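Extended Data, panel c. Modelled sequence:
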Amino acid sequence: MNEVNVMNESQFDLQYINKYATIMALGNGYLGLRASHEEYYAEQTRGMYVAGIYNKSTQNDVTELVNLPDLVGMKIEINDEIFSVLSGEILSYNRNLNMQKGELTREIVWKNKDGNRFCIKFQRFVSKDNLHLLASKMNVISLDCDATIKVTTGIDAQTSNFGKQHLVEENIRVIDKKILHAVYKTTESNHMIALATSCNTPDTSDVSFVAKNRQLMAIIKQDVIVDQPFEFEKISSVYTSIDKSEEDPEQASIHAVQENSSAGYESLLESSSSMWEDFWKKKRVIISSKDESDQIALDFSLYHIEMMTPSHDERFSVGAKGLTGEGYKGHVFWDTEIFIAPFHLFTEPEVARKLLTYRYLHIKEAKEKAAKNGYAGALFPWESAFTGMEETPEYAAINILTGKRQKVASALAEHHIVADIAYAVCQYYENTFDEAFMECVGLELLKETARFWISRTTDENGVLSIKDVIGPDEYTEHINNNAYTNYMANYNVQQALKYMEKYNKIDEVLFESGKDFLKRIYLPQANEDKIIPQDDTFLTKPEIDLSTYKQKQGSQAILLDYSRQEVNEMQILKQADVVMLLYLFPTLFEADVVKKNLQYYEQHTIHDSSLSKAIHAIVASRCGDVENAYRFFQEACLIDLGSNPKSSDEGIHAASLGANWLATIFGFANITMEKNKLKINPNLPGNWDKLSFPFHFQGTNLEITITHESVTVTKQSGTEIEIEINGEVFHLKNQISTLF
């Protein structure tokens, strides 16, 4: 296997300190750790997060993912001078995230105020082998003189969520003059968090301990001889009261450190790295491109998708920022079902099953929300967390020019998430034939979401409309008959009836009302110009020149010139809307209609959402416009990896990373599924010589390799299947290869 790419930072820049803390983060789906520097900087946002640990700081506040006490920070003093890259002189600096093995390293040659040089190396990883473990290591070599080194490190509970404190200190102690142990409880949700850490130091080190101001610290002093390395390791563990563990979190955290400290950093890293290497062998997408940034972007996307997904526990889902930051309060959106789950579904379906089970476990809360809003069935929250309740803030941040807050409409009207979940349920079943899941969990989700849509309609002269909604395009609020929403609702109800019949579990009232819904629901059709109206009024609204704002995509610069109300009354899209519909249902409209709508709506789209560009790439590729598709793809890959120093300060753009994979597989490889048949009609960019990737289809694991001249499909395991390549049908037993 070709080596997975390394993310590199070759010089320190305060402007980028939080961007790199995000993009170089470590994690394993249970635990996420920002790539903050060991030493302290005022501008730096530290962060450690555990899936499912949410809390409200006050009763009227919004639930948010809790920033847990810091386990990696260090105050480093060399000859009584505090180490910082902002003081002294940096002779060399290099930081690497090795995504193949899941390790972050940093090596610096630092000259202090006295002119003496020190080589300092930091290493850390979050274990993929043991979800509760993380480890770090520091090595210092004095290059010019004997020196005294003092390191203060331990468990620092001074961290907060941008000033909001979520934890109460329950107990802190030092066990056997070796293990630092601390227990905290969240103030409102009453989750317990137990942390333990042990510093493995040379026998010659002087070690003492101190507890003060929410910090439990070990103070390590060591005299070093020139050219002789001083090295110490820190092995830490994290357990919580919501873990699926029979052992008490307090004892579990202590035992984990006791059992693993003697193994040492390198041994623990080897166990973790082998699991990362297994991941890459099974799931990596390999691109032979003239632009190496394409491969880097795909490696980066898959690395983060893996480390953000809580595949260990179906009670959790993926937040909009994964486990890398506090943006969007760590909440779960439609992003998971539409942009992230497909990667898992077509590589390891069991993980997609768990993400859907998360929704099923909260169907009670969704039904309560529907009833509260005057609807039947299940209305899933726009923003969700651990409890499954609606977590969307009622008001946006204060406008500093007007002093007023604008009401957030998403929870009240962005209801397409209901059908998005139903779509993901059907997609899961169609690729797995998981009857046990579909007959129970899937059917229940389909029935309750269908019930919601039927109750959500308004009868207008015998035609059913869905009024006062927000589609994927969030610059167009409170509109009627959003094309995306109506078609998705139609599909939702259609599938509910289909699977009720399949399993002979027919709810007569729902079945009859569903048939009536399907007969009368308004589905916007293409007009004489072949344009599908995004909603009842969009095409009648005035247009403005958007070229300036397209150049500033992702910045919401248009809101500096126009109010949201003014934007709402113009033909301006934040992100793909009708184009999203065309992506999800590739055969719903004729090819010329798809092409016309892609062109029309892209002209009116600013791409201020990170979800937009990759979806345009898919549809453009399917339309044969590979040049623009490739441009969209590369621009989508720069959302986190681009030069904007503040693009990722509050966390990774999780859904956009999933969308990069989607664009590659469903855009350039152009895979579609139709009537239990896998179809491949590739449109590789000119820059790509070859694309290879794994793909799971209906129980069969495939390896697919595409060039400009051929497609080769190899069955790795599973049953024989039927594949159509560029219109020619093949029966795959072991391997097929076709030229074109």
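The CA atoms of residues 603 and 687 lie 25 Å apart. This feature is highlighted in the accompanying rendering.
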